[in-house]
Amino acid sequence: MTGLRGSATDTLSFRLAGEAPKKLYVVKGRVVVEDRGQIGLEAKLLDAKRNVKGMAKTDDKGAFVFADVEPGTYTVYSSRMDVLKLAGESKAFQVPDAKKGELSVSVSLYQAK
């Protein structure tokens, strides 16, 4: 008989007494040009001060997902700076702190100036 040994790992989470866990949202959407999803572009989640709070790549349908978004005001920005020089961003949206949930946004790219 061989001397096999196993191990286990436990993860512990701590929070202050009376502190409620954060309610985090999922923000998902698409980057499009005239309704065609844009593949492999970087989508940036920007807070109200235009600080980057997250980045995601669009999939084969132009879709992106940001998980665990904290409450606040955001926009999503994306660009395609090849020969076409396209850029765009979503309308500002509010992630509420009332409950956990999911929001959908859309980013339409237009000719950059």
SSE blueprint and pairings:
Blueprint: E1 25-33, E2 36-37, E3 42-47, E4 52-57, E5 63-69, E6 72-80, E7 86-89, E8 93-95, E9 102-108, E10 110-111
Parallel strand pairs: 1-9
Antiparallel strand pairs: 1-2, 1-5, 3-4, 3-6, 6-7, 6-8, 7-10
What's the gist of this structure?
By secondary structure, this protein is an all-beta fold.
Give a structural overview.
The chain is mostly beta strands and 113 residues long. It has one domain (25-111): Immunoglobulin-like (Sandwich). Helices cover 0% and strands 49% of the residues. It has strands at 25-33, 36-37, 42-47, 52-57, 63-69, 72-80, 86-89, 93-95, 102-108, 110-111. The strands form 2 sheets. Strands 3, 4, 6, 7, 8 and 10 form a 6-stranded antiparallel beta sheet that branches. A hairpin with a 5-residue loop joins strand 6 and strand 7 (86-89). It is globular.
Anisotropy-based shape? globular
Radius of gyration: 19 Å
> How much helix, percentage-wise, in residues?
under 10%
Structural class, by secondary structure, is: mainly beta
Q: What proportion strand?
A: over 45%
Based on the coordinates given, report the CATH architecture: Sandwich
CATH T-level topology: Immunoglobulin-like
Overall pLDDT confidence: 85
Taking the alpha carbons of the first and last residues, their distance comes to: 74 Å
Identify the notable features of this structure and list them briefly.
single chain, 113 residues, Immunoglobulin-like, 6-stranded antiparallel sheet, 4-stranded mixed sheet
